Amino acid sequence: MKPQAIARRRDTATPLRLFWLSTLSMILILSTSLMAAAQGGAPQSFADLAQRISPSVVNITTTTTVAGRTGPQGIVPEGSPFEDFFREFQDRNGGGEERPRRSSALGSGFVISEDGYVVTNNHVIEGADEIEIEFFEGFTLPATLVGTDPNTDIALLKVEAETPLKFVNFGDSDAARVGDWVVAMGNPLGQGFSVSAGIVSARNRALSGTYDDYIQTDAAINRGNSGGPLFNMNGDVIGVNTAILSPNGGSIGIGFSMASNVVKRVTAQLKEYGETRRGWLGVRIQDVTDDVAEAMGLNGTVGALVTDVPEGPAMESGMKSGDVILSFDGNDVADTRGLVRQVGNTEVGKTVRVLVNREGKTETLRITLGRREESENPVPASQVQPEEDAPAEVDLLGLTLIPLSAEMRDQLQLPETIKGLAVTAVDETSEAFEKGLRSGDVITEAGQSAVQTVAELQDRITEAEEAGRKSLLLLVRRGGDPRFVALSLQSE
Questions:
Q1: Which residue among 53, 118, 172, 482 is least packed, with the fewest CB closer than 10 Å?
Q2: Prediction pTM value
Q3: Which residues are catalytic?
């Protein structure tokens, strides 16, 4: 019996050991998960971070003098029997006088140096006569405007304090990842200092500006938060809260902060010069689409297609319309937006190498950049050209075309240097219409060669077909602005 009893005790002990081992494993896994969450996941509290960075965040109050009508303002429909009564009442009370009044606005900002430089949005202080900064500790100081950059909606202010101010540093916005925790601080809806937390929802958002590079976040941002900082968990500023997407004016979890790597360059230039100084290449460009790439015989859609080269640095260095810019100053060019930012972030006067694809071959150009803020788009000197007899209209590629005459050039307000085929009508069922061609457009190139007659365009069509191309690349100008359009040759 003893052996049997021992065997039974062993049988019951084994499941107990397995249970406790399993329980212990679960505890260890849970502990590890909690430690990982505390290190890289949801923090237990933002209190320590908020306490450390709050003294650098400021509230901004601006005062503007605006013209305004004083006195009672009756709203009476025109022709109403009360119209004369209200008019006499307003005249007796000075209702017809325009008197200046004071208007106030609120926003946010943050201190970036102990000697009192403050960053905010341009739209927060635009047109302000007086700017007052309220600090977290409760004291206020008047601020002077150092400079603004409407393109990125950034402004730099300066206050004079008797003691060094607490400030924060810019972080690397390129290092921010989607899903990272962030903290927004500011003065939402005039309620005073406030903290909200969320994550990076998306990066590299473009709204409407040329140099846009926004971080999208779901941290609550409302009116009054404009100009305030977006912090990473190290307490570094990775964005300036600028805009929200909302149907009702309140936060719905879609806010945008201008990336700190953009703001750093802007504020450095504003501090040094009082204005921005961006590089200027001197070209008009468009993205390379699939059909344009096929028409040009390119292997992919990367790069920026040059549509026009006005007088400027690029023209002086030999850049041509139809070149595809593949690399700028040693960095690959993905698309037009990327090139604009690369050029704008390069210092004025620097000589850079620009790699282009020209008619299937690569060439490297050395271009010394100008300054965008000083650049103009001059119209080339006009040259008198002998007029030709205007032939009859011809239908090609869904377009009704005729050589551009002097009379049509005047109607379209084009310089005499523009030559080509004028579009007088577009078949609304054609691909040309779908791609935006309209009456009044002028085709100046086909297959990257100039065309001035219908015969030349027909030759370009034949050459493309013989080369096995499925589409023909046209350079189209509308009001002087050029763009490339690829049209299918299958129906021709």
A1: 172
A2: 0.66
A3: 123, 153, 226
